[in-house]
Amino acid sequence: MRRRPFPGGSRWSRTLVLWLAFAAVHLLVAWLGWRMPNQPMGDVYFVYEPWSTAALHGAGIVGITEPWVYPHLALAPLILAHAFAWLGGYTIAWAVLVTLCNAAGFWLLLGDGRSRSRRAAARFWLAFILLLGPVGMYRIDAVTVPLAIAGLLWLVRRPFLASVLVAAGTWIKVWPAALLAAAFVALRRRAEIVGGALVTSAVIAAAVILPGGAAHLLGFVTAQTGRGLQLEAPVSGLYLWGAALRLDGWWLFYDDEILTFQVTGPHVDVVIAAMTPLLALAAAAVVLIGAIKARRGASVVRLLPPLALALVVVLIALNKVGSPQFHDWLIPPLVLWIVLDRRRARPLAALALLSAALTQIVYPLMYGLLLVADVSAVAVLTARNVVLVALMVWAIVRLARVPVRSDVRHPAVQPAATV
Q: Where are the chain's structural domains?
């Protein structure tokens, strides 16, 4: 007698494989942090642990009693990681915390495992984590990724809750504000998006002001304005090549205040001064394109993913900072795009994966060579930056080509079917 197959068995087996892959990827990347050169976990034990330990022992609270480079809610995961320190110290605790946060986002993304697009998005997320490597896990940016993914997945049905989650991510690391802007432009329920962000911001502001931290409420904004050109930023490429070719007046140096390597050379102050306005103008132009598309009746499903991705890539590619962990920011908008329309998202996702892989080669693998302006390391970084800029241009082109009501020829994918 032949047995009947268990209903949904293949679906559950595919889901189980994805969860096993999730565990394997996180274990491997966490372990690589201990094995790779140039201290890819350095921020965790050099800055996160001292900041959070001082706060727990009443020795000063960053963002309250003293200025801080991060938004105020960033201190919450830094402190929460101590709950897992019994497993083997703070660094292991941080890896556990990030893994648990990602597990919550991964569970929400997969749902019941029926959706092919959601499974494809889950595979993309795991591939990106693996290709980006330890720097993607051992930085505060990692905590914002599952928050942003959850917020994007809930935008259509629960815009207020989605806005709360994305706003919380913004108060950990500023970049999710780009997702809020994209949601405000693309969705019609704008009052709920604004309301969720305002409520979250008001609660956090009160938590900062009441203990006496009013003077530092927006310190994370002013702390960034005076930064120079960080080594890995695309705009730094010309100066980096000048140092590699040993030209007079072009070199690398370490900024003891910001704790990053930067570049300098002829007219560098002019370039530094121009980058923030350039980034703001580019972001405003992207928002304007999105607003025109929305006003002319573009579908949310077609408009939101390229708009969100374009804004995020602009924040990375035109940023004078350019830290490697910024690549974490690419995950949520691409996950959303794959969920909604994996065919159109596929080539951009592939380009993002290539950029992530090149980023891991640069940091931590070739970073020692980069710090001495070795030509081979500079060439790899240049290739990464070219890929990143290409992704930005492609995302903007896709945004500009989003069909509007007058030229839609085929029915759009319905958001209720996937999100």
A: 25-213+229-403
